[in-house]
Amino acid sequence: MGLKTVLAFDFGASSGRAVLAQFDGKQISSREIHRFSNDPVMVRGTLYWDVLRLFHEIKQGITKALHSGGFDCISIDTWGVDIGLIGFDGELVQNPVHYRDQRTTGMMEEVCSTISPEELYAHTGIQFMRINTLFQLYYLAHYRPELLERTDKLVMITDVFNYFLTGEIKTEYTNASTSQMLNANTGTWDTALLERLGIPTRILPEIIPAGSVYGTLSDELCEELGCPKGP
Known about the structure:
Blueprint (H helix, E strand, L loop, with lengths): L3 E8 L3 E9 L4 E10 L3 E3 L2 E3 L2 H17 L5 E5 L5 E5 L19 H8 L2 H8 L8 H11 L1 H5 L1 E6 H10 L3 E3 H4 L14 H6 L9 E3 L10 H7 L6
Parallel strand pairs: 1-6, 9-10
Antiparallel strand pairs: 1-2, 2-3, 4-5, 7-8
């Protein structure tokens, strides 16, 4: 196996970094090449991810990686549960809302009045937290349905950036598992459960296995950054 170089972006609760990691078949080495803050922004009472600035930081990381010898692939890790809504025009329906926002207060109790906690856990098998994607979508379906009506596909927050990079819309399996919408027995979206809660299932993206190739960098991005299309 030849030397492989991965440009990895890690988005933490308050900061992010770009790391070049290499694997020679026996050992992994890594070095940080770019660090930046990750600050949610409050606008008119709603707390949002600052996704455009963060995408700018991703492009800065790509540029620095190119100056450091290049890379074979890109990987992105963010906090789970949060989502973006991609409209029929290919644009974000709204800025993605941050998990610290209070819009899901009381949503877990509303969901559990329709589906018991025992049944919900039997289906999804993950910890109950009001920030989970299920409760975010329940809020949208019942209190902001016009946003879902304008939505073509839902993407997890990691995949917002993957979409910006590639134009592809997919969700990696372990990321989908943070949503409390994945059936723990079948490994697929639990569409029957979502339909009982009034959540439209047509917006759910394709689930791909961990380690899959998501796509290739868009022509526009490669031209902008002087980046090769692929290895």
